[in-house]
Automatic annotation (TrEMBL):
One of its GO terms (molecular function) is tRNA (adenine(37)-C2)-methyltransferase activity. The gene is rlmN. It holds the Pfam family Radical_SAM. It comes from Hominifimenecus microfluidus. This is Probable dual-specificity RNA methyltransferase RlmN. The keyword Transferase applies.
Length: 354
């Protein structure tokens, strides 16, 4: 019999679980606090619960923990990349980044990805499965345990397409922003998507205060289809309409991610098309010189051309910044995450542990 994933449950669901176990409902608030505020690692840590209840929880529930099978620290900037083994032996990667304004983490939402973007290593092996809310949370909790520091900003921009796992993403957002847990402000959370139009509209209806980041990477459909298979399903016009709907519902400025590929999408013509596309919209463009992956022949746009592209946008009233590169020496920069650390070995170990 599979045990209940207690870390993915809301406080209301915890109350129902405890009542079904013959316990008092007020225990739910205690357990929720132990899991999400105090970051308890085991049920035995929950010292204000009776021993009998702790034993019952051990028997019927699982308290998901991720095992860091590898931690790499950049010699350039202190960025850390974590390879976490999931309970089933799959591997995901997460990144810890230190800024003057606080600590940011980039977390994964799926094991692998099925979107197929040509500049991204995360999609090379396809999609294995969605991550549960507990597995998204635990990436953050484990990095906080390891560093002894608190996270202030979260980007759901690691392996996977977050809106392809929307129900679990929404529960994760509910739990990580809870005043009874980590209490991270919604405004400090960014969720990236390659442009799943129906899911953007579904997210807009929730009227959250998170930042929506669109992986755009091209100013026209023809070019975008050569870089991103999703462009065959949803046109840029459809994406822009969904973004307008998101802004109208939330008042939150849209961020557009634009990976600059040398000789592909970084010329003056592409800049002009991008300006025409975004003119008059409350948005921000994040320019990212593409990070190389060995399986693709894309080359990054060089510094002078990046600055020229940025100035062309800004001269025409489009707010644009160049993303600071962090962790390139440990393959933790944008588009470089992949699940390659002892994948098979960990799966076999998980199967043998039954």
């Amino acid at each position: 019999m599979s045990r209940t994933d207690i870390k993915s449950m809301s406080e209301e669901e915890l109350k129902e679980l405890l009542l079904s176990m013959g316990e008092k409902s007020f225990r739910a608030a205690q357990i929720f606090s132990w899991i999400h505020e105090k970051k308890a690692e085991t049920f035995d840590d929950m010292t204000n619960l009776s021993r009998a209840l702790r034993e019952k929880l051990k028997e019927e529930c699982e308290l998901i923990r991720l095992n860091a099978v590898e931690i790499q620290k950049s010699r350039l900037d202190g960025t850390r990349k974590y390879a976490f083994a999931l309970p089933d032996g799959n591997i995901i990667e997460s990144v810890w980044m230190e800024y003057k304004h606080g600590n940011s983490v980039c977390i994964s939402s799926q094991v692998g990805c099925r979107m197929g973007c040509r500049f991204c290593a995360s999609t090379l092996d396809g999609l294995e499965r969605n991550l549960r809310p507990s597995e998204m949370l635990e990436q953050i909790y484990e990095m906080e345990r390891d560093t002894g520091q608190r996270v202030s900003n979260i980007v759901v921009m690691g392996t996977g397409e977050p809106l392809d796992n929307l129900s679990n993403l929404l529960r994760f957002l509910e739990l990580i922003t809870s005043e009874k847990g980590s209490n991270i402000s919604q405004r400090n959370i960014t969720v990236s998507t390659c442009g799943l139009v129906p899911k953007i509209r579904e997210l807009a209806a929730k009227k959250l205060q998170i930042t929506l980041a669109i992986s755009l990477h091209a100013p026209n459909d023809e070019l975008r289809r050569t870089m991103m298979p999703i462009a065959k399903s949803y046109s840029i016009h459809e994406i822009m309409d969904a973004c307008d709907e998101y802004f109208a519902a939330t008042g939150r400025r849209i961020s557009f991610e634009y990976s600059l590929v040398r000789g592909v999408n970084d010329g003056e013509a592409e800049a002009r098309q991008l300006i025409a596309l975004l003119k008059g919209r409350n948005c921000h463009v994040n320019l990212i010189p593409v990070n190389p992956i060995k399986e693709r022949d894309y080359k990054e746009t060089l510094g002078q051309q990046v600055e020229k592209f940025q100035k062309q946008l800004e001269k025409n009233g489009i707010n644009a910044t160049i993303r600071r590169k962090l962790g390139t020496d440990i393959d933790s920069a944008c588009g470089q995450l992949r699940r390659r650390v002892r994948q098979e070995e960990n799966r076999k170990e998980a199967e043998s542990n039954g």
